[in-house]
Every structure is written in structure tokens, then in C-alpha cells.
């Protein structure tokens, strides 16, 4: 039994039948139900590889990621990947996670492209200048960037958050609470999200007529251990900050633990705001004031929709989504000197 036989029986085009089987939203519900009923009645079982060849695409979406112990313990990343995988499975495709080392990412993409099993890529943690995106664009391989990057010659599909706005919201909140010695603890400036978030922080400080003290800016933390060490350095400085903005949740977990271990009372001795909070599996009792973004389940599903649209040949310039963050107050920040 083939899709063509189902199409002939129902008087539909092969493309319509294929789209109905793959759950595309533009197919009318009545048409989809009729196709699925005919497939069940006729005993049709889809062959993912055959379907991929018929549609001119491979049967998987790839995600090349330098796996480290901190990533395997990152509940937010795993939730996004799970939602991405679930939506792709509904379309008859797999999510293929390719493990690599940080220094071998570009070569890993080259190997994955040569393998021809991956029809499109989702590229996480984009850099300000990203050779991975440049390679995929040069090779004509469909991709969705999970974040943005500068310097690409042609438009490309991306999903990102308004990182600068989120950091401005957090910094302005701390300024309104009377804080002036505000530290910034975050990831390396090579990451686009970190560059944008630090830019938003610096802009809000400048609006208040302030400049961040270089001794209070630590931009080398993207896991729990480095966040813990960075917070220890801030607390040990001769003139410690009264507040800290942390630009990623992994460093945030370590930083909050370091503060609590040192006997700091959050929201009183030190105010802390963490981008993305501490994650769904946090055991910290204090409610952390956070800059929050769409739920990881929503993010993963949207990444999948964009990847599927690219595989269908949609113009990448039409596949660019910017999501707004929001500031969610907690108990970890408060007036200066409270």
C-alpha cells in the first residue's frame, strides 16, 4: 500500500495526502481525518526513508551539541529537546543529537552533512560571529538558529528572545530598589545571548548615569561550578556589590548556592536576579526573581515548526521569531540596605 493509492482512492493530490499524514496545519481537519481513515482501512504503514525521498528530504533534524556533565543536568535544555523531538515525531521525523567537543563543532557539522541522514539542523547557543551558521548557509543546508548571529550574507530562520530588553527590565528593577553597585555575572561575550544581555545591562546603567565597575563584571560563567566560583569572588571583593544580575540559569544555580553557603540573606544582604530562574528542579526554597521566557515546551515546539517549514522550502526570511521576556518578582531581591 502506498500514498499514491490512498490519493487515487480519495481523489486527492499526492502532496495533500502526504501533508495530511504528516500533520501539517494547513490541511483541513476533514481532509486529514479522511486520509488517516483510509490509511488505517487499507493497512498503510509509512516508511520514513521512502517518505523522505519522495519529499526530497532526509528523515531527521540534527542538533550538534558539545555535551558536558552540566548540559546533561540542564533540565531546561532537556525539556526543549524533548518538545522538539515530540513535534518532529508527529511529522514522522527524528531528532538526532550529535555529541561532539567544543573545539570540533564545525567538523561535526561537516560529517553530519556528508552522512545525508539529516535534512535540517537546529543550531543552539549561537555566537556573535558563528562559523557553524556560515558553513550551513554556504552549503545550502536548511537550518534554524536557536538565537541570532551577525555577519551572515543571506536571511536565515531563527528563534530568539529579546535578550537586551530582559536585561534592561532586571537592571531597572534593581536601580528602582536603590542599588548602585550592581554586579554582572554571566557567560562569555562570544555567545550572542550574553552579548545582548550585557548590552541591555550596560544601557540601563547608563540611563541612570552609572557605569558598571569593571571589578564587578565577571563574564566567564556558563555552568554551576563557574557560577559558584564567580559569586565567591564577588563576595570576597573589597567593595562587594549590593545586587547581582546573572545572565544564565546554570551559573545562577552555582552563584545562589555560593551566596547561601556564605550565610547571605537573599533580598536583604544581597539582591539577585537570575535570567531564566534556577530551573524546574531547583531545591532552593527562596523564590528567585527572574527574567522568564516562553516555557521550554513552547520553545521546542516552535523550533520544530520552523525546521519543518524550512524542509518544505519556506523562505527563511519569513521564519524569524522574536519572543518577549517578562520579569517575575520573587524574594531574592529587595531595597538596598533592607
List the defining traits of the structure above:
alpha/beta, 434 Repressor (Amino-terminal Domain), Rossmann fold, 6-stranded mixed beta sheet, 44% helix
Report on this model:
This protein has 338 residues and is α/β, with parallel strands linked by helices. It folds into 3 domains: 3-46, lambda repressor-like DNA-binding domains (434 Repressor (Amino-terminal Domain)); 60-161 and 295-323, Rossmann fold; 163-293, 3-Layer(aba) Sandwich (Rossmann fold). 44% of the residues lie in helices and 16% in strands. The strands form 2 sheets. The chain has a 6-stranded parallel beta sheet, sandwiched between helices. Strands 7-6-8-9-10-12 form a 6-stranded mixed beta sheet, sandwiched between helices. The longest helix is centred in the N-terminal third of the chain and has 16 residues, at 75-90. The chain is elongated and about 80 Å long. The termini are far apart. The relative contact order is 0.12.
Give the helix tally.
Answer: 13
Termini Cα gap:
73 Å
Our count of domains comes out at 3
CATH class group of the largest domain? Alpha Beta
The average pLDDT value, as a whole number, equals: 89
Secondary-structure element order, N to C: HHHHEHHEHEHEEHEHEHEHEEHEE
Reading side by side through the largest sheet, how are the strands ordered? 2-1-3-4-5-11
Low-confidence stretches: 47-57
Residues in β-strands, percent: 15-25%
CATH fourth-tier homologous superfamily of the largest domain: Response regulator
